[in-house]
Design brief:
DNA-binding, Arc Repressor Mutant, subunit A, alpha+beta, 3 strands, 6 helices, transcription regulation, DNA binding, WH-like_DNA-bd_sf, 104 residues
């Protein structure tokens, strides 16, 4: 994952409503949830939900798929794992340098 993509996804998740939507979809598992259930669980207006879902879809964190009359929303787990990995993969990578400079 590149820095720009990570920044866009983190910016999208920086909104409390979008973060709540995303966490709801992550909790739902691979089956996802119909838009109506997401709306009921979070108690937000349909237009507000649509706006925020669109932003999550544009950043690649969420997908939507139509099943008959329902629109199913799903968290994109590989994207979530890539973002988390981007944040933690280099954790303490420079610790050796910091320890050396402290000792000197």
């Amino acid at each position: 994952m590149n820095l720009e993509q990570a920044a866009k996804q983190l910016e999208a998740l920086g909104n409390p409503t979008r973060l709540a939507i995303y966490r709801t979809l992550v909790r739902a598992g691979h089956a996802g949830l119909p838009v109506g259930q997401v709306q009921e669980r979070l108690g937000i207006a349909a237009s507000t939900l649509s706006h925020h879902l669109h932003r999550l879809i544009l950043t690649g964190l969420v997908t939507q798929e139509r099943h008959a009359t329902s629109l199913i929303c799903r968290a994109v787990y590989p994207a979530m794992n890539d973002l988390v990995g981007f944040l933690v993969n280099e954790c303490c990578a420079d610790a050796g340098c910091a320890s050396t400079s402290t000792a000197a």
